[in-house]
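Table S2 (continued). Query chain:
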Amino acid sequence: MNVKPDIEFIKDLREESGADLKQCMQCGTCSVVCDLSPEDNPFPRKEMIWASWGLKDKLLSDPDVWLCHNCGDCTTYCPRDVKPGDVLASVRNKVYEKYARPVFLFKLLKKPIFLPITIAIPVFIIGLILFINGTLVIPEGDVNYSKFFPHMQLNTSFSILTLIMLIGVVFSVRQFAADMKTHLPKTKCKSFIKSLFELKIEIITHQKFNVCKENKYRANAHFLVFWGFVLLLIVTAFAILAVIFFEYPLSLFHPVKIAGNLAAIMLIVGLSIMMFQRIKGENVAGKNNYFDWMFLVLLFVLTISGLLVEIARFDNWSLAYHIYFVHLVLVWMLIIYAPFTKFAHIIYRSTAIILCKMYGR
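Corresponding output:
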């Protein structure tokens, strides 16, 4: 085998993961303790070899990288403290960089020095829409957000932005899937629909997280964050329809409003657990880095601002519109940057797992 190592890739992995790849002695402990690793050609032992050899293309198109749920069992039991879990997490970050388009947005989100720019982009877009609409002023009287940002313009711009993001995701995932197939058996075993249904069961129950022995908190935290976010998406979709077909805004005791507040609480609790464990120590939650923290803090502050927007409207706060503007900026940051943050793992992991089920991996 003619090995052509990518030295820069090795350096990047070592820097991002904090792992000394040369210390790996290929004992196989990481694969043995991982209950998610298939018996046939298990991970992450082979991935650790590829990482130390700098086989960038092989790693970035490896579906097994996404079968890992980063529970930390392999890192906990590694006799040389090489941190296999953190290495695979760093590889996944490299996948975002490889397939995300345009790439410069990923690079903006990767370093804290560019944070002002990442905030300025949605601020400029929202400010421009308000300026063109002639509502870039604080309305008088009781708080009514539609006077500041009319619902029609808000929903239209929100939908267009989301559509642009999804189009980019489709092109990225198509190339990602094509590269994944080079590692999978040539004969398809299951249909896409059946594989998708099986994945749906895994997502609903989060059963893979419960298989992990160490860091059991991750299962509960991810369950709360995932379903809290899904519930908020449903509530948001209803709110958009309510503007068109029903009376809006909704009362505080409307079932949809109650569901939205419940979702916010689920997110706050789940994210708080995640952030606390990261502060507690790297051995518990993996290596801390700006890329991970930016996503967690963005989602946390977004949720808090959403609750404040709601309270400000019912209590007629003088700063209600200022809070609302900040909330809109955070919402748009989440949408614009979704394919370039940790949020993208939902897309890539789901794609990789579906392919693995289809092709019998």
